[in-house]
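I am still learning, so can you show me any protein sequence you like together with the matching structure tokens, please?
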Amino acid sequence: MAASAAAVAVVSVLLSITVTPPMHHTMYQTMGKNNLQLCDSPGLHLLPLPRPLSRAIHVKTALDVDKVSMIKVGAQDGTELTFEQIEIGNKPKAPSDIISLVDRYGEDWERTVLYDQVHYIMSTVCARMTSHEIAIEKFDTLDDLLREELQKIQRDWETSVEILSVRVYKPTLPRVLAEAYAAQAEQKAHYKVEIERNVKIKQENLNKMEKASGDYERAKAEHANQIQMNKAAHDNEMTMQREIAEMEANASKMRAEANQLLHTSEFLELKKYEAMLTNTKQIITGDAASALFAKIIGSD
């Protein structure tokens, strides 16, 4: 029985001094009111004394996204707005920096160096803007403004906390103001749609004009090309006729020159006698030839 009680006591002590930091966390050990300057990496570790004489604080050293909720601010025009959530991406530069943060600001150091500062910065920034600027006109600048101010505070306070990202969600407006902005946004949307429609119509008309101009220039070019082709065909026809005429003239000239060479005086004399002979043959043919032949017979 005593052995069992002793075993239970030993197990209880071991459990009270055994700690296991989660992944991406650093364990910061404390003993009483004196802080031990010791940071342990993830894994199984033993506390120097059983709880509650000593305890372990687990602090995330990887990128952590802290969500700050329900930030109430007042605009320049007196309107009260509420940012339901703002996300802050941050991490200590080194695990050993956790010691200084916990020593200076306690275990809940994020409340002091991040959460409270987000409320302060947003109140200060929004107090210089109207509700319309906060919710619509300059809403897209709030992320950068808040990140820059948080980074400046971390540098001034030497917290060694890196502010890596900031995301500000749309604020909640009073119902009347929200309805007015919604109507205004709807009017802007309709106006934008109308502008886009006019731009589209203008572009379509411009495309039609460009197409008509292109068709005209193409028809003009085709007409000019047809005229040029017809002129070329006419020129070719005239050239052929001129060449034919020149060839015929040359042929006539050559025939004349040949006739001049052929019609010599002897040739003409020969042709004259041939013509006379032909005429003589014609005279003594028919009845005249019979009468002449009878006369010749009778004289004999």
